[in-house]
Amino acid sequence: MRVERIARDKVRIFISYDDLEERGIDRDEIWHNGKKVQDLFWDMMETAYMEVGFDIAGPISVEAFTMPTEGVVVIVTRIPSMPGAGHEDGDYSDDEGSYEDRDHGFSSRTTPTHMVMAFRELEDLLAACKTLRQYPVQTALYHHEGAYQLVIRGDLRPDQWEEVFAISAEYGEMSRVTPWMLEEYGKVIFADHAVEQLLRNFPT
Questions:
Q1: Which runs of consecutive H residues, i.e. helices, occur in the chain?
Q2: The domain containing residue 170 runs over which residues?
Q3: C-alpha closest to that of 104 among 72, 164, 61
Q4: How are beta strands 147-153 and 71-78 bridged, if at all?
Q5: Is residue 109 part of a domain?
C-alpha cells in the first residue's frame, strides 16, 4: 500500500493485488462493500493519517479504479461541509450525518481521466508512443526525477484505459508524481501533443 497526498484535501492510495490477497480479498470482491473491504478502507485511512497527516473527520468522496497489473487506485477527497468552505487539517465539525455512509468501501468505481507514466530512456518512450498514437488521448511530456514523465489524458472507455496502461507499462512504469506536481516542479518538454511531436522529431 502506498499513499500520496496530491492536494490539501485529497490523497491517492495504491493497493497492490498482493495487498488484497494478504487480506483474503478477491479482485472482484473489492467492489462489494463487505466487512473485509470496509476493514481495508479504514486501514488505508489510518495509513494516510500516519504517513501524510490526512484526517477524514468529515464528509468524503471515494473513487476507485483498477489497473491491470498495478492493483487498485483509490482517490479520497474531503468535501467541505458548506459549499465553498475550505478546511484546514483537523478543522471539521463532527455533527450527526457528516458522513453520508460510515461503512465506506469501494463501491464508487470510476473510470480514470488521466495517468502519468515514467520512462527512464527516450527509446522506451518512443516505442510506447508508436502504439499510443492510435488512441484519442491528449499528452504532455515533462522531465522530472531523472525520468521522462508522460501525462496521458482522455475520455476513454475502461478497456481502452487498460490497453493504454498495458502498452505504457511494457516500456515504463506508473509514475509516483501527479500532473499538478509536474506542472509546478517538472521541466516542460512538450505542453501538449507530446506523442505527435515526439514521433515527428524522432522519426524511425
A1: 17-22, 35-52, 122-132, 158-171, 179-185, 194-201
A2: 114-201
A3: 61
A4: unpaired
A5: no
Q: How many angstroms separate the CA atoms of 74 and 44, rounded?
A: 10
For residue 187, give the CATH number of its domain: 3.30.70.1950
C-alpha–C-alpha distance, residues 171 and 148, integer Å:
12
24 is a domain residue: yes
Task: Determine the length of the chain.
Answer: 204
User: Could you tell me if 143 and 67 lie in one domain?
Assistant: no
The model carries a pTM of 0.55
Distance of alpha carbon 196 from its chain centroid, rounded?
24
Examine the domain organization and report whether 21 and 70 are in the same domain: yes
Distance CA(113)–CA(102), nearest Å, equals 27
| Residues 74, 127 share a domain | no
Output the nine-digit C-alpha cell for 127: 516505442
* 14 and 73 co-located in one domain: yes
As a whole number of angstroms, the distance between CA 85 and CA 18 comes to: 39
CA distance linking residue 132 with residue 126, whole number of Å: 10
List the chain pLDDT tens, one digit each, 204 residues: 888 888 888 888 888 888 888 888 887 777 776 788 888 888 888 888 888 888 876 677 788 877 766 788 888 888 764 444 444 444 433 333 333 334 455 554 555 678 889 999 999 999 999 999 999 999 999 999 999 999 998 888 877 887 888 889 899 988 877 787 898 889 999 999 999 999 999 986
Residue type, 123: E
